[in-house]
Amino acid sequence: MSIAVTPVKLPIAAPQLSIRGIEFRSIDPWRPPADLPSGLSRATPKRQAEFLAGRIAADHACRPLGIDPGRLPVGSERRPVWPPGVIGSISHSDNLAVAAVGVRSRCAGVGIDVEKVNGNRRTDFLVPAIVSEDEIAMLRDRFGSGLAALLLFSAREAIYKAISPFLSGRLSYREFLLTGCDSGRLLFARRSRKTAHRHLPRDMSVLFARTEDYVATLYVLPAVGTDTAPASPANDMASWT
User: Does any domain span residue 230?
Assistant: First the structure.
């Protein structure tokens, strides 16, 4: 292994899922794993380490469910290909990698996202195209403009990860409009009823947790006939231990 990892407990949870996180660092000299996907063979050591850390986090999340994820091949849109009957999502930022894994009988889709708070350039060039000033204004008093924008971006990323396997084409991030915020949840509603997935709820609840260093968001797309409530909310400010 070319990285050293330390398990961390994440302050975000859902009863349908096994969620695990790791902090990781590269070991010098860097030796790329022999089984890296061909598309990453010429990637930077940082990108290779992120990929490896994400797979390790996924393995940690699968084990409590009795699932052996194997090598998790890379599929369309660079999504991991999970074993039959398994649903999951991976994210990484800076030196933190997280994964959420469940079974299809309990949820149709899952999206998890983690973002570094300080020095995250997404707020400079991605967020303006995804987040509206009206939405930032709804959260500004609670979080400040910068963190509010990052939370909104991360929440939309989590939603998109959960529903993207069901889409026949691209769907604008602004299809999901912020309608409110309560303890540990960002509430969204679809702007239109048009969707490629007939079971996508009109209203969506995205869990979030934040620390001084990171924000994490989680969206669970319910399986047909199950409760749409995704989980117990996390605290706004929590510690990664």
Answer: no
The residue range of the domain holding 74 is: 3-222
Say if residues 77 and 99 touch (Cβ distance below 8 Å): no
The reply to whether 134 falls in a domain is yes
Provide the residue count of the chain. Answer: 241
Q: Which residue has the tokens 């396997």?
A: 165
Q: What is the pLDDT of residues 149-174, one digit of tens each?
A: 999 999 999 999 998 887 766 667 77
| Cβ atoms within 10 Å of 209's Cβ, excluding its own | 23
In order of 34, 54, 99, the CA distances from 48 in angstroms are 11, 10, 17
Q: Is residue 236 part of a domain?
A: no
Judge whether 10 lies within some domain: yes
Closest C-alpha to 136, from 153, 160, 122:
153
Q: Are 150 and 120 in contact (CB under 8 A)?
A: yes
